[in-house]
Design brief:
The complex is a heterodimer of chains A (291) and B (421). In chain A, 76% of the residues lie in helices and 3% in strands. Chain A is mostly helical and 291 residues long. In chain A, helix 1 crosses helix 9 and helix 5 packs across helix 6. Chain B has 421 residues and is mostly helical.
C-alpha cells in the first residue's frame, strides 16, 4: 500500500496542532500531579466545566470562547484554591491522600459530569467563532484554523507557564515545595499557601483548556473521561513535573493519534494513549525528561 | 468465628434470604435483589484490593464488563451453562488484573489508579470495534423463560448471584484473618517498612489484584442473561465504577462487613430511588454521598459505630463547611423536578447539612445554626402537605441556607471565645 503524500502531510500537521492543544490540557496536571504530587483525576471534569462556561458565555453574550475563558480564569482560580484547602484539611494533613483523597477527586469528577448531564443533557454542544470554519492553505498543506488557533493559544500559555515556574519567585517556590517542604518551612515560607496557589493555577489552566477544547470539537459531559487517559499518559511520558518533556510528549501523542485515526479509523484513537501509558510505565517510568 | 462456622452461618442467612424472596412470590423482588447482590460482590471485590492493600481501582466497570462480554462471546460461539461461564469470566478478568498489576504495581499507587481508569476506556474501544460480540450496536442474549426445579429463570440467576455473594464475603473475611490479610494491612499502612521487613509486597499486591478482578468478572458473567441486551456504553458505565468505590467507602473499608453494609444500604436506596427518580439523579446521589463520607466519616459507617467520635472535626473548618453546604444543597433542585416522592431521598442530604451546621455552630457558639437546615426540611415537605407553591418553598429555603452559610462564616464577636477554641 502506498500512502498518499498529501494525506501523510496533513496527518502530520493535524497531529502537531492537536499535540499543541494536548500540551495545554496537560499543563495543569503537570503542576498538580507532577510537581505537587496531588493525583487530581478530577482535572478533566474542570476542563469540561470550562468548556460549558465558555459555551454559555458564547451563546448568551456572543463573546469569543477563548476570551471568555481568560476572563473566567480568576473564578477557576478561586475554585481551585477552595478545593485544595478542603483537600489539605481533610486528607493531606491526616495522611489519607492515597485512598480517600483519590476517592474525593473521583467523586468530584463524577459530580461534575452528572451535574452537567442533568443541566445540559447529553447533547453535543458547540460554539460560534469566526475561525471555526476556514483553513489556511500553504500548497498542499491545510491548517484548519479550528486547530491552529487553540494550538497557538496553548503554546503561548505553555511558554508563559514555563517562564513563570523558572523565572519568578513564586514559580521557584512552587518547584521548591516539591523538593523539600521542610526546608521551605525553615525559610519562613508557608508550603500550604504555595501549594494552594499552584493548585489554583492548575485549575485556572484547566478552565482555559476547556474553552480550547470546545473550539476544537463539540463537547458533551462524558468527553472528559477520554481525556483522563490522554492527560496522564502525556504527563507520565514527559516525565513528572517537566514542562518541556510534557510538550514533547503531547506532540508525540498528537501525532500517534492523528496517524491512527487517519489510517485505521477514529474509533481506535482512545486506545493509543493507553498503550502509550502502559508502555511508558513498563519501560521507562521516569518519562522522557524525568528527573 | 472460625472460617467454617462463618461459612455455614452465611449459607443459612443466604437460604433465609432466598426463602423470603420466594415467599413474596413477586419476580420484581428477584430482579431488584439480583442488582443488590451484584453490588455486594463488586463492593467486596473492590475492597479486597482497595480496602485491604490501599490501592484504588477505578476500573471496576472494565473487569465487570470483561466478564459480561466473555459470556456474550461464548453465548455466540459455544453455549455453556452459566456457572461455567462465571468461572471462565473470573479467570479472564483475573488474568487481566494480574497483567495490569504486574505492569503498574511496582510503581507508586497513583499510577495503578490512573491505569485502571484508562483501562476502562481502552477495553470499551476494543469492544466497540469488535463486531462479533455486537460492537457499538450491542448484542441480544435470549434467555429461556423457565428452568427445571426452580421455575422462573430470574430465580436461577438470583440464586447464582447469592452463592457468589456468599463466596465473596467469606473469602474477604478469610483473607482478613489470615497471614495474607496481615500482609495486605502492612502494605496499606507502610509499604516501605513492610518491604524492609521482608514482606513480599509485589507478590501480595498481585494476589489482591487477581482475586479482586476475578470476583468482578464473575459478577459480570451472568449479566447478559439478566439484562437480555448488552451494549458497551452502559456496561462500561460509570455506575459500576462509582458504586463499587462508594459502597466500601460508605460502609467502611478495613473490614469485610463494611462493603456489605454499604452495598446493602446504597443498593436498596438506589433500587427504591429508581422507581421514583431518573438514573442520572440516582448517580448524583451516590457521588455526593461518596464525597460527604470521605470528608466527614473517613472510616465509614463501621467507623462511626465502632469509635463513635471518629466523625472528624474537619467539618468545622470554614472552607470545608462552605463546600459541603454547596455540594449537599445542589441535588435538592434536581430532586424537586422529580416530584414529591423524591423529596424523601433529599432527607439524607438535609441530615448531612444539619450535622455540618451543628458542628460549625458548636465551634462558633452559635448553636442555632442547625435551625436553618431543619427549617429547610420543613420547606421541602411543605408543598406536599400545605398549599405553599413549590417555587416559593424552594426560594425561601435557599434564602435560609444562604443566611446559614453567612452566619457560619461571620467572624466571632468576642476574641476570648476564639482563643478557647
Amino acid at each position: 500500500m502506498t500512502i498518499p503524500y498529501d494525506l501523510l502531510l496533513n496527518a502530520v500537521i493535524a497531529g502537531l496542532l492537536l499535540g499543541g492543544f494536548y500540551a495545554a490540557v496537560t499543563a495543569g496536571v503537570s503542576i498538580s500531579f507532577g510537581i505537587l504530587d496531588i493525583v487530581n483525576i478530577a482535572h478533566p471534569g474542570f476542563i469540561i466545566l470550562g468548556s460549558y462556561i465558555a459555551y454559555i458565555i458564547n451563546i448568551r453574550l456572543g463573546v469569543d470562547p477563548i476570551v471568555a475563558s481568560v476572563v473566567m480564569a480568576p473564578v477557576f482560580y478561586a475554585l481551585g484554591s477552595t478545593i485544595y484547602q478542603v483537600y489539605y484539611l481533610s486528607f493531606e494533613r491526616r495522611g489519607q491522600e492515597a485512598l480517600r483523597g483519590l476517592a474525593f477527586f473521583f467523586g468530584l469528577l463524577f459530580i461534575t459530569e452528572v451535574g452537567l448531564i442533568l443541566v445540559f443533557g447529553v447533547d453535543y454542544r458547540y460554539v460560534d467563532a469566526s475561525y471555526i470554519g476556514p483553513s489556511l492553505h500553504l500548497g498542499n498543506a491545510h491548517f484548519p484554523l479550528r486547530l491552529l488557533v487553540p494550538c497557538l493559544v496553548s503554546l503561548v500559555l505553555f511558554t508563559g507557564l514555563h517562564l513563570f515556574l523558572t523565572r519568578t519567585f513564586m514559580g521557584r517556590a512552587i518547584n521548591a515545595v516539591s523538593q523539600d517542604q521542610l526546608a521551605l518551612q525553615l525559610m519562613a515560607a508557608d508550603p500550604i499557601r504555595i501549594k494552594r496557589v499552584a493548585f489554583a493555577i492548575s485549575i485556572a489552566i484547566a478552565g482555559v483548556a476547556g474553552a480550547l477544547l470546545i473550539v476544537i470539537q463539540p463537547v458533551e459531559p462524558s468527553v472528559g473521561r477520554e481525556y483522563i487517559g490522554r492527560i496522564f499518559a502525556i504527563c507520565v511520558l514527559g516525565g513528572l513535573g517537566s514542562l518541556p518533556g510534557t510538550l514533547i510528549a503531547a506532540m508525540l501523542l498528537g501525532l500517534m493519534e492523528s496517524f491512527t485515526s487517519t489510517f485505521y479509523g477514529p474509533s481506535w484513537s482512545p486506545a493509543v494513549s493507553f498503550g502509550f501509558l502502559l508502555l511508558t510505565l513498563a519501560v521507562r517510568p521516569a518519562g522522557l525528561l524525568g528527573r | 468465628m472460625r472460617a467454617w462456622p462463618f461459612l455455614a452461618a452465611a449459607v443459612i442467612v443466604a437460604a433465609i434470604v432466598f426463602a423470603l424472596a420466594r415467599y413474596l412470590e413477586n419476580d420484581y423482588v428477584f430482579y431488584a435483589g439480583y442488582v443488590v447482590l451484584q453490588f455486594i460482590v463488586l463492593a467486596t471485590a473492590w475492597n479486597i484490593l482497595g480496602g485491604y492493600t490501599g490501592y484504588v481501582n477505578f476500573g471496576s466497570a472494565a473487569f465487570f464488563a470483561l466478564g459480561a462480554y466473555t459470556s456474550v462471546f461464548f453465548h455466540k460461539a459455544y453455549p455453556l451453562p452459566i456457572p461455567v461461564l462465571m468461572v471462565i469470566g473470573g479467570v479472564v478478568s483475573g488474568i487481566v488484573g494480574l497483567g495490569m498489576g504486574y505492569l503498574t504495581l511496582r510503581l507508586r499507587g497513583a499510577f495503578f489508579a490512573i491505569a485502571t481508569l484508562a483501562l476502562a476506556v481502552v477495553l470499551q474501544t476494543l469492544i466497540i470495534n469488535w463486531t462479533y460480540v455486537g460492537g457499538a450496536r450491542g448484542a441480544y442474549v435470549i434467555r429461556p423463560n423457565e428452568i427445571p426445579i426452580l421455575g422462573s429463570y430470574i430465580q436461577y440467576l438470583f440464586l447464582l448471584m447469592l452463592v457468589l455473594a456468599v463466596l465473596a464475603v467469606a473469602t474477604a473475611r478469610l483473607i482478613e484473618r489470615s497471614r495474607l490479610g496481615y500482609g495486605f494491612a502492612t502494605i496499606r499502612d507502610d509499604e516501605l517498612a513492610a518491604e524492609a521487613c521482608g514482606v513480599p509486597t509485589l507478590g501480595l499486591k498481585l494476589i489482591a489484584t487477581t482475586l479482586s478482578g476475578a470476583f468482578m468478572g464473575m459478577a459480570g458473567a451472568p449479566f447478559p442473561y439478566y439484562i437480555g441486551y448488552i451494549e458497551p456504553a452502559s456496561t462500561f458505565g460509570l455506575a459500576y465504577a462509582v458504586n463499587s468505590i462508594a459502597m466500601p467507602m460508605i460502609g467502611g473499608t478495613t473490614t469485610w462487613i463494611g462493603p456489605l453494609i454499604g452495598a446493602i444500604l446504597l443498593g436498596l436506596l438506589q433500587q427504591i430511588a429508581t422507581v421514583t427518580i431518573s438514573s442520572a439523579v440516582n448517580l448524583l446521589i451516590v457521588g455526593m454521598l461518596l464525597v460527604d463520607f470521605v470528608i466527614i466519616a473517613p472510616n465509614g459507617i463501621v467507623g462511626l459505630v465502632k469509635e463513635r467520635r471518629t466523625a472528624s472535626n474537619v467539618v468545622v473548618e470554614p472552607t470545608v463547611f462552605v463546600l459541603l453546604f454547596v455540594l449537599n444543597l445542589s441535588p435538592m433542585y434536581f430532586l424537586v423536578e422529580q416530584g414529591t416522592a423524591a423529596q424523601s431521598i433529599g432527607l439524607v442530604f438535609w441530615l448531612v447539612l444539619a450535622y455540618v451546621a451543628h458542628m460549625r455552630g458548636r465551634v462558633l457558639g452559635r448553636w442555632w445554626l442547625i435551625a436553618f437546615p431543619l427549617a429547610g426540611i420543613l420547606f421541602a415537605f411543605a408543598p406536599a402537605i400545605t398549599a405553599i407553591p413549590v417555587t416559593t418553598a424552594i426560594f425561601a429555603s435557599t434564602i435560609l441556607q444562604i443566611i446559614c452559610v453567612a452566619c457560619g462564616l461571620l467572624p466571632m464577636r468576642r476574641p476570648a471565645e476564639a482563643s478557647a477554641r
